[in-house]
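pasting for the record
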Amino acid sequence: MTISRQIAHRPWRRMLSVLVLAFAVPACIAQTPAQSLVQAQNLRADGELAAGRGVPLIVLVSLEGCPHCEVVRRSHLLPLGGGEDGAAKPVIRQIELRGNAVLVDFNGERKTHAAFARERRASIAPVVMFLDAKGQTLAAPLIGAMIPDFYGAYFDAALAEARARMAGNRRGNGTSP
């Protein structure tokens, strides 16, 4: 191969390498297991668990493929460490806006995620609800993604309000020292 042909093929080789990397890297990232929240199955039990810990039940109404839902999940909910263990950790559950999975609501009734979302007037995603053991609202729900630069402040304020109301409810019931 002559020098002129080698020079002519080099830009294509570089371009091919860039294209391979451009498609390979996102594919690797997409295969990384995403952290997720526990899907709501029994909100009555979840509410009792949260009340026992003295924390609100946080419910994310999400939609599959919703990038704003993923930001809320990863940036605000997962860092709280919501899970089954640890008394101070909040109880966080996820509802699929259009989901057909069945859950038990706060009244002990079985219904789909979609039906629960409709009852709560959640028609878009994401919606973050702060609820007590009976399913009553402790702070105004965060609807939509709002302004990303300020979402964290809105989230923190709503969580603080929900925690304060939980603490007030516990004192009012004589369950706190």
